Amino acid sequence: MGPRNCIGMRFALQAIKLVIVEILQSFSFVTCKETEVPLELLDKVAIAPKKPNKLKLVPRSEAPSQD
């Protein structure tokens, strides 16, 4: 997509990015008991886990501190 993109599409993309930032600022990713540590990766060109990586989203006020 070049610079002559529809201005509405650019506005929508910017709005989506802002929503993602707000979500990431409000929540922390925390490992749960199903999370595989250390993560096993596939032996292919792309770096991808062998099994799905399971994480919990916890509100930042409840997240354990990382100190």
Task: Give the key terms.
iron; Cyt_P450; two-stranded antiparallel ribbon; Cyt_P450_sf; alpha+beta; 67 residues; steroid hydroxylase activity; single chain; monooxygenase
Q: What does this molecule look like?
A:
- 0% of the residues are buried.
- This protein has a two-stranded antiparallel sheet.
- The chain is built from one helix and two strands; from the N terminus they run αββ.
- The protein is flat, with a radius of gyration of 18 Å.
- The protein is of the alpha+beta class.
- 30% of the residues lie in helices and 15% in strands.
- The mean pLDDT is 84.
- The termini are far apart.
- The protein has a domain at 29-67.
- Pfam families: p450 (PF00067).
- GO terms for molecular function: heme binding; iron ion binding; oxidoreductase activity, acting on paired donors, with incorporation or reduction of molecular oxygen; steroid hydroxylase activity.
What is the averaged pLDDT score? 84
Q: How far apart are the termini?
A: 43 Å
Helix percent band: 25-40%
Helical segment tally? 1
pLDDT < 50 runs, ≥5 residues: none
Q: If you compute it from the alpha carbons, what radius of gyration comes out, rounded to the nearest whole angstrom? A: 18 Å
> Structural class given helices, strands, pairing?
alpha+beta
For the biggest β-sheet, the strand order reads 1-2
Broad shape? flat
> What fraction strand?
5-15%
Main pleated-sheet profile = 2 strands, antiparallel
Secondary-structure element order, N to C = HEE
Keywords: Heme, Iron, Metal-binding, Monooxygenase, Oxidoreductase
GO molecular function: heme binding; iron ion binding; oxidoreductase activity, acting on paired donors, with incorporation or reduction of molecular oxygen; steroid hydroxylase activity
Pfam family, one: p450
Family: Belongs to the cytochrome P450 family.
